[in-house]
Amino acid sequence: MADSQLSLVHGSEDLYTSMGNQLEEILRNCTLKKGTFSRYILNTKTVIDGDRLKRETFGEKDESKLHKTILMVGETGTGKSTLINAIVNYMLDVQWENKIWCEIIETKENQPDSQTNTVTVYDVFAEKSPFSLTLIDTPGFANTDGIEKDANIAETLHELFRSKDGVPEIDAVCLVVSAKMTRLTNFQQQIFDDVLSLFGVDVEKNIVVLMTNVQNKPVNAVKAIKASKVKCAKTPKGKPVHFCFDNSHCEEFQDDDEDDEETDGAEQNHKYKDLWVKNEKTMKDFFAFLNNATSINVKLTEHVLRKRKQLTACITNLNDRITLIELRKTELEQKKAALEKCEKEKKNKNDFECEVEEPYKEKVPVPFRRWLLGKKATCCSVCKENCHYPGCWWVRDLRWCSVMSDGKCTVCTGKCKYTEHVKEGKMYVLKTRKVTKTIEDLKKKYEVESGEKMSLKRRLENEIKMYETEKNKLVDDSYQYIISLEEIALNPTAVSTLQHLDFLIEKMKETKDNKREQKFQELKKRIENKTRNETPGLGPVA
Question: Which domains does the chain have, with CATH numbers?
């Protein structure tokens, strides 16, 4: 390591004396970057380094200490990474007089990393902290990659919550917003809705708002949160529980302008010291909230995520099967028309031939999606159906796939055993081909007895009825899934649900189930109201 990286901060040999032994040792082994403050990039141990989930550990675990876990959620640019670093500095007991800043997330050079799909878990163990802490940092939900990317983040959290060495409890869900906002944008509302839809109803009291860039009392920002009706912990007066931070002094950490006037430097130093003191007080209050928070077991959350994935898989599979039904109806009508023509022209049926569009399935490579690179589909080899795409990417034994229950698939037609399924980079697609059918072909397929003129038609129609019955059952299953989510989820009306509702409403109309159709219409309206370009009581979004 370079001598400059091992040098004492600002050349002061007394500086380390004012620090704890752990912090002194930490700094001697970290990368140093000089500026107004000496910025240290903390060394972490990588535990998991995947495309969708990363886990890093800092410090040595003390089993005797209480452990807390927080989930950080925020739009890109709100200062979430800087806030995480501020939490770590507080845990390390870094003081203003030390003139240092420690980063577990290198915020200056690696800003693009905040745009990735990776959920990153930081396990932080510090001697002077009253408890050890796990911070779960999520990328921005609902960005330009859309709903499919959001689903991947939810899937990653699902894996984290359910794995043996994952996260068993959550103590706080932190919604990070800028205090400069005067209303919640459509984008922010969607972010929070999607995240909160992952949790059960028991987590509401553990949701708090962390406000950044707070220079004055954030009156408008608090009003915006309250008016948006985002579910979170409330004060006795009904205001959202929030904590205010201003880490603007971090913007100067890389500056090294020797031409600054000494007087300006002194004023800036005094200003930043005041910010430091205020942030430290707020952090103390936040840690007091954490210390008193009742841990929430994520078992219900895992159940919500599993139900949502089963719902999505069921609807996707349902769509394929209904499409197949419609194609077979078309094939039936073509055969029927040809038979009627043959009878009308009194032709010898032994000479009967007709050309029809025959549906069939073919396995093809899964479509490329940048954020789904490396994903595979779970398919039933008996039913020849797609059961889960994108599949549970961490699952090797398919009995643990989210669409499996008691060792059987909840999606495919036969509800087959998990052993009848394969996970690979291929999936089934529906196609049609022109084929020529003779009367013998039809007799062989439908076992039509000679002389029964309507037998073929009747048998074909019976087959359609069978598929219609199955379709109705799947529509009913989808309805029950959504109702179940409404009962257990903190926020069931997530935007990601909207993509399925139009399809289901159309099928409800076909089954003439007016009551359920109306319920889905109301659910759709509630979601659309949440995502309209106006937040209640605050005027149009800029």
Answer: 3-296 (3.40.50.300), 303-311+331-467 (no CATH)
